[in-house]
Write a structure and sequence with these properties.
Elements (H helix, E strand, L loop, with lengths): L5 H15 L3 H12 L4 E5 L4 H15 L4 E4 L6 E6 L8 E11 L2 E11 L1 E2 L2 E2 L2 H15 L26 H23 L2
Parallel strand pairs: 1-2, 1-3, 3-5
Antiparallel strand pairs: 4-5, 6-7
Helix pairs in contact: 1-2, 2-5, 3-4
Length: 190
């Protein structure tokens, strides 16, 4: 079963605490950033742009809104990079932060590293896409699910999850709904 990632819960708690202490602009900014409303831009090298776009579209179609958008050049919110080695046996890793580029505006920034090798063999396009789908699930607030068969399950090249499961989509939608309620609550508290 899909679970909410601890980082998402921490950000939600920080924003709720800020709202409860009268810092409503901070709370609204955090809620907007982690609710992912404006769309998160993804950058990728030409070599893997198609796989990243395919993974983004899998989430966008499943959720029913354009959360992710792949861009060329500029300053994307998250940069997807292929690397040759990651610690442990991970195929991917997400490193995100909330950045304050201007007053009352927060932006999710960072990077996604994808190990382009599986036991020394280069990943196929489908394998790379499946790993990006998994890592984008983390960006959306989901945690790993070692006993699951959806996108957040353990990496298994023989059983690739190129799309999130219905359970994972439902949980992401509930996180987004909770964020909307919190934004509305922080706005009405002004």
């Amino acid at each position: 079963m899909a679970m909410i990632a601890p980082e998402t819960s921490d950000w939600m708690r920080q924003a709720l605490d800020a709202r409860n202490h009268g810092r409503t602009e901070f709370a609204r900014g955090v809620f907007h950033a982690i609710r992912l409303d404006g769309g998160i831009t993804l950058g990728a090298s030409d070599l893997h742009a198609a796989e990243v776009a395919r993974a983004a579209e899998a989430w966008n179609e499943s959720i029913g809104t354009k959360v992710f958008r792949v861009v060329r050049g500029g300053d994307p919110d998250l940069q997807v990079r292929a690397v040759s080695v990651l610690e442990g046996d991970d195929q991917g890793e997400v490193d995100t932060d909330l950045e304050l580029p201007g007053a009352d505006h927060y932006r999710l920034t960072g990077g996604i590293s994808i190990c382009g090798l599986d036991h020394g063999v280069p990943l196929t396009a489908d394998e790379f896409t499946a790993v990006v789908v998994h890592e984008l699930g983390h960006v959306l607030g989901l945690d790993d699910c070692s006993n699951g068969s959806g996108a957040m399950g353990d990496y298994d090249a023989a059983h690739l999850a190129l799309r999130p499961s219905a359970d994972e989509v439902s949980l992401v939608k509930s996180i987004r709904a909770e964020m909307l309620l919190q934004i509305l609550s922080s706005t009405s508290a002004r």
